[in-house]
Design goal:
heterodimer; A: 380 residues; alpha/beta; Rossmann fold; 2 domains; five-stranded mixed sheet; four-stranded mixed sheet; 18% strand; globular; B: 300 residues; eight-stranded mixed sheet; 12 helices
């Protein structure tokens, strides 16, 4: 049975901070960066007002923000921080340390492009740079999904059989600073869904001392990394299961949690997207269909682990995938397109793949631009 | 209560087990045995990239007999902050969170993190063991390298003064700051215990000999450290925020007076890193030593 919820009006950053509030993290680290800042500002207010009992660590850099969360996670408590863009890059070595160290830290990344030049608008270049860091990455399309995904992330990451950090991603400003409708559950219902973190993945213990991250030879090292690969594979099912449990309790879903198709199962052309462009693509699809075109869309919600099986299965029924990337791998192509192409090739699916890099540095990607792209591709 | 030689003989074996990878004559491993051993059942260690990340041993043979978290070079004080906060949440704040790292992290790459933790008054103790060089990367100059020292990146001799890290932390409102020497372990352990009894950010810089990088005889490791104190190179003091007074420590007290000191060349001559040091460099080293004493006297 779906629980009672209250419809509120809030920004995407508010939604992320409410998800954190309801999950009751023990340690939160905070450092400001636009457009992330209001997430930790909200949390500082919650702590000051006594709504949240947590240690709030006001650190001197993003490098230390994640480091403080790492220390707390090693001690076996629930942890939360958030960042963007240059901040994510500044904490880089700790981002990898967290992923490879299997610390279940939850860190929304409010996507913003990278300098130079100074620009605070969205693209996915920041989080894409960390696709290999051993973090679960989920890209959201609206404020509601930010709340839902952040809440789900705690449950997924802290499962002992997963033990991976999560990076819910939300487009800077388009989501982070835009007010929209969010259905908020009762805080206790939300907490009951996540559950207490009382059987931690890891917790230092003076009675049973161990050293963590000491020198490790090649055999053991490669075993650890294989374990990480296997955990990522397990995470696919976990994401689906947690997403399903969430749907049963709160009545909302995003495809199967890994991918979210839109429109008919089979079409002449499919728009493949990440993040808010996925939402904009729905409008484009509706209009194209009204003009008689046979088109549909596929939003990749979970980018890591990459939903290989679901994409293959979807692509088999379709004829032409047009991938819109909001990031670039310079010297190659858009990262989403590269990965979709590789997956289809490996599984002998001959559905054609093309793509376009759009929306860098906050360049607007309205449905009209998506329609133009689709029409051009339909002609080719 | 003063720590006696007898106290030191009881516990050290608990903290550093056989099979560690420290070099012969390593002052850091010696200091570790005694200090960490004195709180072995309560200590939680955070180790930035440093010699201690190596000499703790490897895999199932790790020789540190206390919970040990290895961190990135610049991350240790922030990781320690997170541990301290989490332990507080769990009601386990009787445990002692200790950063054990070298001068590369404390004087250079991690100094912002360290000052950050100090500024927040995190309840941790940072022990900076100083061999004045990036040790396990092969002996490159650090911000803690003395004038005249030949290192892998200053083959003709280092020309710049040392960063006075303890004073940087005093200036940033640390709870307790002290210096120590591996030649005077009772003094060190006493300061270590005192620091751990206080709430807030504590810092101890300990001089430890590094025979490979100092190109010194490992059998003279302690002798060199003792000469460091006796020549005035290494002032021994403790400073407490509540009094804002720096007090010279018993073993090093009389070297506050220049007349009581041995010549610095007694200390440099035992170390290959000073081979070929010129008179001009020696004078500059003496001047830098005096500069530190003059700074210290402002707090006495």
């Amino acid at each position: 049975m779906v629980v009672k919820q209250e419809t509120k009006s809030m920004t995407g950053n508010d939604a992320a901070s409410y998800a954190a509030l309801f999950a009751k993290p023990d340690v939160i680290a905070a450092y400001p960066i636009t457009p992330q800042t209001t997430i930790v500002e909200n949390l500082s207010r919650f702590v000051d007002e006594g709504k949240l009992e947590a240690e709030f660590v006001i650190v001197e850099s993003e490098h230390s923000a994640l480091a403080a969360c790492m220390g707390a996670a090693w001690s076996g408590v629930r942890t939360f921080t958030a960042t963007s863009s240059q901040g994510l890059l500044y904490m880089a070595e700790n981002v990898f340390w967290t992923g490879y160290g299997r610390l279940p830290i939850i860190m929304p990344v409010v996507n913003r492009c990278l300098a130079p030049g100074w620009n605070i608008w969205p693209d996915f270049q920041d989080s894409m740079a960390f696709r290999d860091a051993g973090w679960i990455q989920m890209y959201t399309k609206n404020n509601q999904e930010v709340f839902d995904t952040t809440l789900q992330a705690f449950k997924i990451s802290e499962s002992k059989d997963i033990a991976l950090p999560s990076m819910p991603c939300l487009d800077g400003f388009v989501i982070s600073h835009t007010t929209g409708q969010v259905d908020l559950p009762d805080p206790e219902d939300a907490f009951e869904f996540v559950g207490p973190y009382d059987d931690p993945v890891i917790a230092l213990d003076v009675e049973n001392p161990w050293a963590y991250g000491s020198m490790t030879g090649p055999d053991q090292y490669s075993k650890h990394r294989r374990d990480l690969m296997v955990a990522m594979e397990r995470a696919k099912k976990k994401i689906i299961d947690v997403h399903k449990e969430f749907e049963e309790r709160f009545g909302r879903s995003y495809g199967n949690g890994l991918i979210e198709p839109y429109g008919d199962d089979e079409a002449d052309l499919t728009l493949v997207t990440l993040g808010t462009i996925g939402d904009e693509a729905h409008e484009a699809i509706d209009r194209l269909k009204a003009e008689g075109h046979n088109v549909n869309a596929l939003r990749v919600r979970t980018f890591r682990p990459f939903p290989v099986e679901n994409i293959v299965e979807f692509a088999k029924k379709n004829h032409k995938l047009v991938v819109i990337d909001r990031a670039a791998s310079f010297g190659h192509d858009g990262p989403l397109r590269i990965e979709v192409e590789a997956v289809l090739k490996r599984h002998n699916v001959d559905t054609s793949v093309s793509g376009k890099i759009m929306g860098l540095g906050g360049e607007d990607v309205p449905y009209s631009a998506i329609i133009d792209l689709a029409k051009k591709e339909l002609k080719e | 209560m003063p720590v006696t030689q007898k106290d030191l003989m009881i516990k050290p074996k608990d903290a550093l087990l056989k099979g560690h990878f420290a070099c012969a004559g390593c002052g850091s491993a010696l200091a570790f045995r005694h200090a960490i051993g004195s709180v072995a059942d309560k200590a939680v260690l955070v180790v930035p990239a440093s010699c201690a990340s190596v000499y703790q041993g490897s895999g199932k043979g790790v020789a540190f007999n206390v919970p040990t978290i290895n961190t990135a070079f610049a991350a240790s004080d922030a990781v320690a902050s997170g541990i301290s906060r989490a332990l507080k949440r769990k009601g386990k704040d009787d445990l002692k969170v200790i950063v054990w790292g070298g001068d590369g992290s404390a004087a250079d790459i991690g100094i912002a993190t360290e000052i950050g933790a100090c500024d927040r008054q995190e309840n941790i103790l940072h022990v900076m063991y100083s061999n004045n060089v990036y040790g396990n990367t092969g002996g490159q100059r650090s911000g803690d390298t003395m004038i005249g020292a030949r290192t892998a990146t200053t083959p003709k001799g280092n020309t710049t003064p040392r960063k006075m890290v303890p004073f940087i932390l005093i200036a940033n409102n640390a709870r307790y700051v002290a210096t120590a020497s591996a030649a005077f372990l009772e003094d060190f352990v006493e300061k270590f215990q005192k620091a751990l009894s206080l709430e807030g950010f504590k810092f101890i810089q300990i001089d430890i000999s590094c025979p490979p990088n100092w190109r010194a005889d490992s059998a003279q490791s302690i002798e060199i450290s003792r000469l460091g104190v006796q020549t005035g190179i290494w002032p021994l003091f403790e400073w407490d925020r509540e009094t804002n007074i720096a007090v010279l420590s018993r073993p090093g007290k009389k070297y506050g007076d220049k007349a009581n000191r041995k010549p610095i060349s007694d200390w440099t001559s035992l170390q290959g890193r000073f081979r070929g040091i010129t008179d001009k460099e020696l004078i500059a080293l003496e001047e830098d030593t005096e500069r530190q004493w003059n700074f210290l006297r402002k707090f006495m």
